[in-house]
Amino acid sequence: MEKITQLTSKTVVLAIDDVDTDQIVPARFLTTTQREGIGISLFADWRFDKEGNEISEFPLNAPDAKDCQILVAGRNFGCGSSREHAPWAIYDFGIRAVISSEIADIFRNNSLNNGLIPVIVDTETHQWLLDNPRAEVTVDVDATEIRLPDGKTVKFPIEPFARHCILEGIDQMGYLTQNLENIEAFEANRSWQP
Amino acid sequence: MSAKTLFDKVWDDHVVIPESEDTPAVFYIDLHIVHEVTTPQAFNMLRENNWPVRRPDLVLATMDHSTPTVPVPNLDVLDDPAVSDPEPAGQIRQMIKNCDEFGIELHGFGSEHRGIVHVIGPEIGATQPGKTIVCGDSHSSTHGAFGAMGFGIGATMVGHVLATQCLLLRKPKSMAVNVTGTLKPGVSAKDIILALIGKIGVDGGTGHVIEYRGETIRGLNMEERMTICNMSIEAGARAGMVAPDDITFDYMKGREKAPQGADWDAAVERWKGLCTDDGASFDKVVDLDVSELEPQVTYGTNPAMVVPISKPVPNPAGNASHQKSIDYMQVAADKPMTGTKVDVVFVGSCTNSRMTDLRSVASMLDGKKVADSVRMMIVPGSETVKKQAEEEGLHEIYKAAGAEWREAGCSMCLGMNSDKLGKGQLCVSTSNRNFEGRQGPGGRTVLASPETAAASAIAGVIADPRDYI
Predict the structure, then answer these.
(1) SS3 assignment, position B175
(2) 3-class SS at B446?
(3) pTM over 0.95
(4) Which chain B residue has its CA at the smallest distance from A158's CA?
(5) Topology at the third CATH level for domain B173-289
(6) What is the pLDDT of residues B3-17, one digit of tens each?
(7) Are A18 and B26 within 8 A, CB to CB?
(8) CB nearest to B154's CB, from A26, A84, A183
(9) Quick count: other Cβ atoms within 10 Å of Cβ B254?
(10) What's the complex ipTM?
(11) Which listed site, B153, B178, B202, B309, has its alpha carbon 20 to 30 Å from B400?
(12) For the segment A38-47, what is each residue's pLDDT rounded down to a tens digit?
């Protein structure tokens, strides 16, 4: 996993509520057995028409959207299926942080495991970000805050261990494998066996 | 000792290392169910690190999502373009290879236990009260019907469980859903859960584990409880649970992986303690009276966009997301969904593909005909369900009515095998998600109970099952 302390970028805005992971990566793209190259399937049915041409009105297709590393999305982003293909595709597209007033649980965990920063902000900040595409925003993982163009800072919640792993660029697996002896002891001592 | 909820008890029983300010809990997983779609990348991770699967005995493997729902007597038939596209076929072959290489027993083609992950776990008795159960599939909440804690995880976490049998987790909050009242004829468990999601929203359960409680839940059979727990994720909840009782134990007794003999008695004694103590508190409480509940149908593109079947589709009143949804669905605001032309009816999925559902559909189709304009697909949840239904002669009723009786699998719940909706087609579906294009690009999904699905198949338009029973 790539180390991230903070990033500053203009935002691309997708002002739709309840965007589900079937939109982020439609099921027909889940037949891959790899994780590389999945960015092409990102929002496939919203980005491309039937002939495979880009739909110009879709926000991620704007010429200057390609350089935006921060996606501002409507409320309850990433609901639905557990497919990790969703954060893989977003990351592969070049986005490194998703900001919303609410982010669905499984998507949020999957994002943290891949260095994609899920940022949950209050509804007022969220509305301002939705109303101001291309605002230059800093997402500071170290300080657990975002900084808006007017200098205002807004704190965001992030699970401390996931934050540590992102700052260090390490996988959470390390902590689990360090505890293998404890896991074995747990198995040996429990009152019933599965 | 302070009063605990059912969820507290299951949580506490699986904490290897408690959570601290800096670190989440190391949390033990009793049963890991794996399928072909969300595991290849996890197996690759194990391979790259030269790690074995730590407890292959706690892994239950099958294939369901990418599999065709026509007979697969041997793998060569997957090369037939009429049966499967090359990519899903490749994924199936990769799953066989992965299970073989890592020493996992696979319930593949030819196994009587192949089927949808959330159907076979309970069916073989591997799903048990008090267990922690995960799968790279969000509908793992289904297993909560037994008083287990079942939840969906991504591929990275699948890798964590394969390698260590544990996950790093923070304890979610708890939510009680109290369901009271007696269901009227033609109304079923699916209508309860759709009504609940409509009430609390697709994010109403985010961050929470739900416990379904109350007299109505106690009166449901295990398959109906599974239907309810299954869709907990559609309200954003991590899991949904029901405290086990005699109905649970009666369902489980004698199943292959259930404890046997003296072990069974000891297990039942332990399981009886899996209930919420008097005085235990929940972070959130919701009450739902179902005594006047009507059959429910969705009209939009998420499961909370749902109405009682006799009521009109709500007016978007300027809400852009709502307008976008009903435009996609091509439905009119302020009018009921009944009478809308139906192209396909799908009975199946981990929500509604068990014997209770199949019997109910058969009783409604008996002696009737599926409308000429409708393709009706009935897809059993597992090979075992298929066999049982055929022993009861249900397939003859379906066929006589003009419905297709297919092989077990996820089928048209999600468009990743050959069963897909065409662009613009409208499907009344007993599955769990009506997201845009979920059943095929451009397809339109109306979620409903098996009863509403059967009535709509006969009528050729969305129809109230109460007029057909």
Answers:
(1) strand
(2) strand
(3) yes
(4) B22
(5) Aconitase; Domain 2 (3.40.1060)
(6) 999 999 999 999 999
(7) no
(8) A84
(9) 10
(10) 0.96
(11) B309
(12) 999 999 999 9
